Write the structure tokens for this entry.
Amino acid sequence: MSIFKFENTSVLDAALTAKVSGLLAAAIAAEGKASLVVSGGRTPVGFFHLLSQSELDWSKVTIALADERWVNADHAASNEKLVRENLLINEAHKAEYLALKNSAENALEGEVECQQRLSAIDRFTVVILGMGDDGHTASLFPGSEALERGLDMHSGADCIAVTPLDAPHQRMSMTLPRLLNTESLVIHISGASKQQVLTQANAGDDVMELPIRAILQQQSTPVSIYWAQ
């Protein structure tokens, strides 16, 4: 695990943009395509804007979300809305977007179609995850009935329906094995409270208590942490 600390979010956003655009460009050159998994929330918005201006062959890039609320794409709580308005703009408007949300009435009924969509991509190029103060990442929430299945490395599932205990809206979340199936994995966080959560996560081993531990303590995929004070 590599930790990169930055004095502010602007410096972090520039560094992360350089890293991710370089990885995507290398994958396009080597394989003719690339894929990027991002997370919602306020933290990545500045990074999204910078990355969207990168001069890449975006038509060969597929972008997906690590998790999504089961709401329409025009809903204020939609992560897809966030991505379309802040990342799929400028140069990046040519990228293909792979939606986790589909027309099923609820997330559980939407699992099969979502699984089919995700199976079209073998190994991701880059996965960028956030982390909550409760230690969740994607929609792998502590206390959730879906958490055990979401963390099961042998489930065969790429995505799971999640009903959060303390947050509105059903979710669709990529599972731990799907998130780890990537060439590069980044945790993108800011603020002192997130550093405290990381310290706590590294001090214990109960992944059900702090699901982010499953990312930090696995040995199959290298993890880089980009943290701004």
Q: What stands out?
A: The first strand starts at residue 2 and ends at 6.
